[in-house]
Design goal:
Layout lengths: L1 H5 L19 E2 L11 E2 L13 H4 L29
Antiparallel strand pairs: 1-2
The structure holds flavin-adenine dinucleotide.
Length: 86
Amino acid sequence: MAYLLKAGYRVLLLEKNAIAGGASTTEEAMPQQAPGFKFNLCAIDHIFIHLGPVVEELELAKYGLKYLFCDPVLFCPHPGLPVQKI
Ligand SMILES: Cc1cc2nc3c(=O)[nH]c(=O)nc-3n(C[C@H](O)[C@H](O)[C@H](O)COP(=O)(O)OP(=O)(O)OC[C@H]3O[C@@H](n4cnc5c(N)ncnc54)[C@H](O)[C@@H]3O)c2cc1C
């Protein structure tokens, strides 16, 4: 959509879910088991965005993008297993 807008097209975005973002959302998916923790449900390898020109081409920093490098990178809560940082 951003590239279409940049190319001068008029774009109408329709979203059926309450949260926009499709498969790249970050949601509090387990409010009972992990309240306050937000998860990338599908696109977990977001760091790959830096391998292409998207951030620069779309001037995302200008629009408020602040990339946070995660620590830990991965958190897989599972009943009965010890917490492990990766
Ligand atoms: C399991 C999984 C893991 C992935 N991991 C990664 C990853 O690690 N890194 C990465 O870069 N990419 C990953 N991807 C790919 C990435 O998530 C997709 O390429 C990207 O989300 C596609 O964006 P999109 O906007 O084309 O479609 P989507 O993200 O699928 O968005 C489509 C949107 O359209 C909405 N919609 C559907 N039908 C209607 C309708 N009738 N009316 C209104 N709205 C509608 C949906 O609710 C949804 O929000 C993964 C995908 C999956 C499924």
